[in-house]
Amino acid sequence: MSDKRVEALADILVDYSTSVKSGDLVAIRASYVAEPLILALYQRCLERGAHPTIRASVPKAEPLFYRFAQEHQLEYVWESDRWMVENLDVSFAVIADTNTRQLSKTDPTRQQISSRARKPLLDRYLQRAADGEFRWNVTLFPTEAHAMEAEMSLAEYEDFYYGACLVDLADPVSEWKRMAERHAKLIDWMKGRNEVHIEGEGTDLILEVGGREFVPADGECNFPDGEIFTGPLEDKTRGVVSFSYPAIYGGQAVEDIRLEYEAGRVVNASARRNEEFLIKTLDTDPGARVLGELGIGTNFGIPGFTGEILLDEKIGGTVHLASGASYPETGGVNESAVHWDMVCDLRKGGRITVDGDTLMEDGRFMV
User: Fold this and answer.
1) Helices and strands counted in the chain (H then E)
2) Which of 313-316's residues contact partners 24+ apart within 8 Å by CB, and which partners?
């Protein structure tokens, strides 16, 4: 029996998030286990006169690639991938893992080789999106693996996930538009301000954002959504930050991360678990040790850590910081093959002040 919530999600993604229209070239990328959502998106794109293509993947192929590929194979980029980055109008990427830890034993050096080879594609992808030439959306299809990460049954996780997407409401799009109004209020308050001070357990960090743009995340590029974000000034971050939750990147989980910044760069990095992977990733390229994003979570429908950054970075009352590439639309100029989001929970004793005025206290917005 089909889940009506999948159909409702597809309606929102096609009509609200990406506004698919006749003639659009659309790619749908997902593991085959997300077939119900893949087909729902595909049907709606066809009904709207677009030209959709499905690029389904086999989850167990990725660890085989990193285990057996020779260096020239790790570096290879398909011309079809280059063509898509240059020509697509819309891209849907559906996260649907069957094993969230299948790359845990992969040599991070091999992942870095592949990431560096694909960096020009990432740069072009982000620039076309910033220029308004390209719309993209990343969403999720609930699986047993995601439910296990969140310590829920699959049924519980489905209820939680679709609740965070607001698809059970009579008019979810109206509620996402109300979230957009709240974001606009926060961004208006930030205008003309510069120094952001983040305080919490093990955290005393100062960033500067003067002249940069805060971007609202209203359900267009991610779904579910709920944050405002910017690219901090690349050489101004200073102090220390301790991250509350495991940071998962490239299939590997790093726990109890502590980063110390001077003049915008990570000068000391430590972790209780997987520290070697953390340091190797930060050494991928010169930009990987620079802060590329400051994000402030606004979705209070996501109550706690799930192990999936698409959701965790949106938790209302948290901040997330991304080492590596900036989003061009923020005015950020940092370049890297890395973009690694890490979450700091401020709901128990944390604070964000901006030029001395309180923006958030104990996870509650004060404006």
Assistant:
1) 12, 19
2) 313/227, 313/341, 313/343, 314/217, 314/222, 314/224, 314/225, 314/226, 314/227, 315/343, 315/345, 316/226, 316/363
**Considering only CA atoms, which of 329, 330, 331, 300 is closest in space to residue 316?**
300
Adjacent-strand bridge partners of 344: 319
Crossing angle (nearest 10°) for helices 4-12 and 35-47:
50
Task: Note whether residue 21 is domain-resident.
Answer: yes
Q: Within this chain, do residues 361 and 315 fall inside the same structural domain, yes or no?
A: yes
DSSP letter for each residue of 154-200: HHHHHHHHHHHHTTTSS-HHHHHHHHHHHHHHHHHHHTT--EEEEEE
Integer Cα distance of 300 and 287 in angstroms: 32
Confirm whether 301 is domain-assigned. Answer: yes
Full-model pTM: 0.92
Assess if residue 120 is contained within a domain: yes
Burial tier of 36 (Cβ tally within 10 Å: 0-12, 13-18, 19+): middle
Query: Which tokens is 317 given?
Result: 């009352």
Task: Work out how many domains the chain is built from and give that number.
Answer: 2
Q: Tell me which H or E stretch contains 41.
A: helix 35-47
Give the confidence band of 68 by pLDDT, cuts at 50, 70, 90: very high
- The whole domain housing 236 covers 181-365
The predicted-structure confidence for 90-124, as pLDDT tens digits, reads as follows 999 999 999 999 998 899 899 999 999 999 999 99
